[in-house]
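Lecture 7 notes: from sequence to structure.
We start with the chain below.
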Amino acid sequence: MALDIEALKNAIEEKATKSPKPQLYIKDFYACDPDSKPRVIKNVANEMVREGRLMFWSSGSTTMYGIPSRIQDEEGEE
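Predicted structure tokens for the same chain:
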């Protein structure tokens, strides 16, 4: 059974916080709820970006997600 939206948001945030990498691909979040379809997870992640819980990071060729404070710390910004 798929997680509800808030539980999925919390699982995604926990994965992004505890991951050794500061930026994650959307596919990295699929394991947070194997019962949810990839499109649902992407929509939830994008909603979290709008809420400020996640932010986009781009390498130039691909877009990744991360916790804002972790990405800024990695890039040496304040």
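Points to note: Strands lie at 55-58, 63-66. The chain has a mean pLDDT of 90.
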